[in-house]
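Cast an eye over this sequence plus tokens and explain the fold to me:
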Amino acid sequence: MEFLGYPADQWLPFTFAALMGLSILIYVCLDGFDLGVGVLVPLADEAEQDRMIASIGPFWDANETWLVLAIGLLLVAFPTAHGAILTALYLPVAIMLLGLILRGVAFEFRVKAPYKWKRAWTWAFFAGSLLTSLAQGYMLGLYIMGLISTPLTIGFALLCAVFLTVGYSFIGAAWLIGKAEGDLQSKAVNWCKGGVWGLILGIGAISLASPFVSTRIFDKWFTGPSLIYLAPLPIISGLLIVYIWSALRRLSVNPNKEIWGPFVAAMALFALSFLGMAYSFYPYVVPEQLTIYESASAPEALIIILVGTLFVLPTILAYTALSYYLFRGKATELRYD
């Protein structure tokens, strides 16, 4: 079955790799900010903590759906790669799941449990958010290093764990600028100013490390015309960072203008970084080991899965967009009664 002249065993794996990449990118952007809000919770007082958690209340559960979709696509479309990746990342995946469970339970019990337990559940929510963020950063770092565990690669993965957590806290603070008011909004601006440096260092470390993982990636970036047509990526990224810093300075003076500017710019920065990484590792799904074409399921199976995906993906997009539309505006008190 051909599509635009490409045989099924070529366009189907590429399509599923693109869908999986899109799901991961949306997850990192959306669940990233609510994980970041969780990481920032200890920096606020109790009333501000209530407002912070309320700002993500209608969204966090739907945001995690994108992670389920991405892992599901990896399992059904690239089962060999799924086995290799999950085997190499078994421990951090288990820690991430533990963090997600702790975070979800704490979110519900913090509101419903007796007041004397509220503080304990707040710290549980923070711990779950921190564990999840660190685990995802560690997995990213080890993936970039080719899923090989050596003292050097583990050190880089730990560095990525810290930087991604700081990056999540930055976009979490940027989200709060748009959703909060008064003192909490002012605090969020200051948190953003501190977090932007971690974001810059994290993106810089990954960008510098990736080309040196293999000569293939280095050649893709620094030889021939690629050096020219890829130049817009770092240039636009630099301009976005300059805009973020300028917008934060303006927000310190006037908190009613550009409240969503840093958040949107941060999302764009994450997207550019993700595109750069996808370009670096294509066509490998397991770095330097398995390509998307080698590890893909049979075309007949992929066709059936694609039909289902064409129903599921628009549904997830629709209810995600609907939730953000319905709960737009400033955060209000989170209540269950």
In short: The first strand starts at residue 284 and ends at 286. The chain has one domain: 10-326.
